[in-house]
Amino acid sequence: MAEIEVRFYGGAAEAAATTMQMCQADDLTDLVAQLGREHGDRLRRILSISSVLVDGLVQRPGSRAPLGDCRVDVLPPYAGG
What we know:
Elements: E1 2-8, H1 10-16, E2 20-25, H2 28-39, H3 41-49, E3 51-54, E4 57-59, E5 70-75
Parallel strand pairs: 1-5
Antiparallel strand pairs: 1-2, 3-4, 3-5
Helix pairs in contact: 1-3, 2-3
């Protein structure tokens, strides 16, 4: 399993009650499921509509591509401009 640094921004950080956590997962689908179980329905809902970057590249949340040691950024939608 890969060592993954997850960084939460905006409402995702609020729902997770942290801006960063270390996790282990095989792929992005497993990581998202693990975070939802750990932090509950509010974060699960936010994850379902967030952009996810893996080492700076946009990934689809349902991706089963294997993850190596990496950084994952969870970027929820925002209003403003």
